[in-house]
C-alpha cells in the first residue's frame, strides 16, 4: 500500500515538474510573439490602438479632402437631404402606414456604438466595401477579412445584432447615420449579373435562376429573347421580378427597392452618399466621423466580367420593351425620385413594344 502511495506521489511531482518546465519555456515565447507582432505592424506602417486593438492607418497614408472640398461636400449633402425631405412629403412617404413603404424597417441597419456610426446596407450599392469597413470597426483585422472564406455579412451580424426602432433611434442621438444610393436600374443590373448570371453552383440564386428558366423560357413574349444559357436572360429575369411584385411576394434583398428596404422617409439619415460620387462622398463621411486612421476608402467587388457600366446598361436594357421598362420604373420610382435619378436615358435604349410582339409571333 505504501509503495502504491509513494508511486502516485512521484507521478504527481513529475507532472508538476513537466508543467513548470513548459510554462517557463512557453511564457517567454508568448511574450516574444506579442512584441514581435506589434513591431511587425509598425514595420508595415501601422500602429496598434491600445484602446480598441485595431491597427491604425499611418498618418502619411491618410486620404483627405481640402477645407474647400469639405465645404463643397457639406453643401452637396445638405442639398441631397433637402430633396429627400421634399420628396418624402410630396409622396406621403413620411407618414406611417400599414404597408412596407410606410413602415419603418430597421432590418439591415448596422449600429456601431463605439465609433458612433450607423449604416443601412443597401445591397449592390458599395455594400461589399462598407461591409468590410464595418467588420474592421467591429474588431476583425483586415488580414483576417481578406483571407477568410466566411461571408462578411454573417461575420458582421455576429457583432452587430439587429435593432428595434427604439434602439436605433436611441443610438442615433450621438451617431452619424448614412445610406449609399445608386441608380436603381444600374443597381438591378448589377444584382442580376452578380447573383443570377454569375451565381455560385448549387447556391440559392443558382437554383432560383434555373427555376426562372423553367417557368419563363417558353413564354411567347420572351421566346425570341431567351438565349441558350442555363441562367435566365435579362427579359426573363425582369418578367419574373415583375410577377413577384404584382403578387405581393417577398422581394430578394438584392433586388428590393432601397426606399422600401431602408425607409429613409421614416428613419432619419444624416448623410446620403451616392455610388456615382462615392470616392469623394466616403472621404467626407470618414473625415466627419473621425475615422481616418481606422478605415480607408477602398473599393471592393467592383463587378464581374470587366465591362464598362454604360456599355452594360445599353446591352441589357435594350433587350426590354418600353412597357417592361416602365413597369420596372413603377416599382423603383421612389428610388429614382428621392435620390435624384432619371429614367430618360434608359428609355432611349428600349426596343419598341410592337417589335417585341412581332418577333414573338414570327417565332
From TrEMBL:
A Pfam family per the record: Sulfotransfer_2
The enzyme's E.C. designation: 2.8.2.-
Highest rank taxon of the organism: Eukaryota
Catalytic EC class: transferase
Keywords: Carbohydrate metabolism, Glycoprotein, Golgi apparatus, Membrane, Signal-anchor, Transferase, Transmembrane, Transmembrane helix
Membrane topology annotation: Single-pass type II membrane protein
Location within or outside the cell: Golgi apparatus membrane
InterPro entries found in the cross-reference section: Carb_sulfotrans_8-10, Sulfotransferase
Residue intervals passing through the bilayer: 12-36
Chief localization: Golgi
Keyword Transferase: yes
Family: Belongs to the sulfotransferase 2 family.
Protein's recorded name: Carbohydrate sulfotransferase
Organism: Drosophila arizonae (Fruit fly)
Gene: LOC108614036
Amino acid at each position: 500500500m505504501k509503495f502504491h502511495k509513494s508511486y502516485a506521489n512521484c507521478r504527481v511531482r513529475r507532472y508538476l515538474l513537466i508543467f513548470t518546465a513548459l510554462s517557463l519555456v512557453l511564457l517567454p515565447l508568448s511574450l516574444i510573439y506579442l512584441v514581435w507582432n506589434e513591431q511587425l505592424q509598425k514595420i508595415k506602417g501601422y500602429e496598434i490602438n491600445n484602446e480598441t486593438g485595431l491597427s491604425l492607418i499611418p498618418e502619411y497614408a491618410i486620404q483627405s479632402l481640402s477645407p474647400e472640398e469639405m465645404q463643397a461636400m457639406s453643401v452637396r449633402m445638405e442639398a441631397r437631404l433637402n430633396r429627400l425631405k421634399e420628396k418624402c412629403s410630396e409622396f406621403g412617404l413620411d407618414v406611417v402606414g400599414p404597408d412596407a413603404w410606410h413602415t419603418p424597417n430597421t432590418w439591415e441597419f448596422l449600429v456601431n456604438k463605439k465609433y458612433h456610426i450607423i449604416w443601412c446596407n443597401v445591397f449592390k450599392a458599395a455594400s461589399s466595401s462598407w461591409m468590410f469597413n464595418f467588420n474592421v470597426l467591429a474588431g476583425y483585422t483586415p488580414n483576417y477579412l481578406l483571407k477568410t472564406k466566411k461571408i462578411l455579412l454573417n461575420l458582421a451580424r455576429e457583432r452587430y445584432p439587429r435593432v428595434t426602432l427604439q434602439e436605433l433611434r436611441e443610438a442615433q442621438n450621438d451617431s452619424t447615420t448614412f445610406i449609399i444610393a445608386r441608380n436603381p436600374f444600374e443597381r438591378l443590373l448589377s444584382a442580376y449579373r452578380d447573383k443570377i448570371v454569375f451565381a455560385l453552383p448549387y447556391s440559392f440564386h443558382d437554383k432560383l435562376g434555373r427555376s426562372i428558366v423553367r417557368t419563363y423560357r417558353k413564354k411567347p413574349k420572351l421566346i425570341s429573347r431567351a438565349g441558350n444559357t442555363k441562367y435566365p436572360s435579362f427579359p426573363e429575369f425582369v418578367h419574373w421580378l415583375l410577377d413577384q411584385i404584382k403578387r405581393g411576394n417577398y422581394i430578394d434583398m438584392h433586388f428590393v427597392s432601397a426606399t422600401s428596404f431602408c425607409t429613409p422617409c421614416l428613419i432619419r439619415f444624416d448623410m446620403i452618399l451616392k455610388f456615382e460620387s462615392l470616392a469623394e462622398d466616403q472621404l467626407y463621411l470618414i473625415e466627419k466621423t473621425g475615422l481616418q486612421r481606422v478605415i480607408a476608402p477602398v473599393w471592393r467587388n467592383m463587378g464581374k466580367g470587366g465591362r464598362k457600366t454604360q456599355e452594360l446598361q445599353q446591352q441589357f436594357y435594350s433587350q426590354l420593351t418600353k412597357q417592361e421598362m416602365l413597369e420596372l420604373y413603377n416599382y423603383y420610382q421612389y428610388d429614382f425620385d428621392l435620390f435624384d435619378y432619371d429614367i430618360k436615358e434608359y428609355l432611349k435604349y428600349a426596343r419598341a413594344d410592337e417589335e417585341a410582339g412581332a418577333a414573338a409571333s414570327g417565332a
